[in-house]
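Expect sequence, tokenised fold; for instance:
***
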Amino acid sequence: MRRLPLLLLPLALAACDGGTSTPVTIDVKSDDGDNGSFRMENGTVSIKGDGFQGNFRVPQIKMKADDVDLDGVKLYPKSEIAGFHITGSDKPGKSKDGGKVLIDFTSPASLAAVQNWFRDGFTRKGFKFAAKGDGFAGATSDGGTFTLDLSADGGAKVKGRMEMAGS
């Protein structure tokens, strides 16, 4: 578990393209007390783990709508990702490990257009889902769960938050 934050660095760097950066956080906890965190924002990476701590300068990254894929359903075209957060936990024995991904984004369209985009995508991929407020909640084809919170943000702009928990 001590090396996990270091192993996650290439994942974050894979999306490098300069410009303004997308904040990325990864937090991991294990049943035996090994914990680690990875924070990247504005070209600085901070890694903390049991027995290791460091700060590094790296190229800034900006994640794009095409970088996000919920079991085959992408974000609305030209959406901007405002934050990408992962938490994970390692449970003892045969207990199921836990993990969650949280993505904050804005989409350049009306609330109805973004809702329709996701509704059509979820239906096409065979997800079991239902309306939840202005968004949706449900399960992916592999049994993972998700919630998608959407809200109008003035004019043709929508704020969204997608939360996925793995199976």
User: Anything to note?
Assistant: The first strand starts at residue 24 and ends at 30.
